Amino acid sequence: MNGFEKRTEEKKRKILEAAFELINGDTDTGNVTMEEIAKHANVGKATLFKYFGSKDNLIREVFQDFINQLITDAKEIIAENHSFEETLIALSQNKISYLDKINHQFYMRMMDFFTKKDEEGLSLMMQKFNEVNYGMLLDLFHRGRKEGKVDLKYSDEFLILYFQAIVEGISKPQIYEKIAPYTEEWTEMLIKGIAPRKD
Predict the structure, then answer these.
(1) Distance (Å, whole) CA 24 – CA 4
(2) Which of 159, 169, 153, 155 has the alpha carbon at shortest distance from 191?
(3) pLDDT by residue (tens digit) across 64-99?
(4) Which of 18, 53, 121, 182 could bridge to 41 as Cys pair (CB 3.0-4.6 Å)?
């Protein structure tokens, strides 16, 4: 990356951070103006349009960036190679810490964005899940099997479908409006649900 590209990336990062602070603030997300974001980021309004094209695009980038940061942290947690249970709990705590950073309105607007369906009926959340999580989850399941924490009767295909069903279920407004406070509980149920039976 040359000096110009680096400066461009730094400026975009500054804008995304400023937009996040304002959108996640007390103001109604829809009422945040490009002028306010430009002022908060200490850049000209024209710069916002140059980099993002429109307010809607900028807000989408803020949501994408938030999820990408969460995913990056999740990948780091999995790479630390702790036990299966420790890893799932750390992933759950990571999600909780991210949810703690945002207000309810930001969360609802972001979920609305990520759960919109495309022509094939897949939500953006599901697409992201498929592209990022498949390999990570397989590694985690294999680790769980080696440790005796994941029942050998469950195939990789079933476990992936199980996780996809959870993600798809969470993408319904009547679910995602209520699920955030229960991240720890559903992680615990998940661990118990795929564990071998103790007879």
Answers:
(1) 30
(2) 159
(3) 899 889 888 988 998 898 999 899 888 888 888 888
(4) 18
Structure tokens at 102: 């945002």
- Residue carrying structure tokens 């798809």: 168
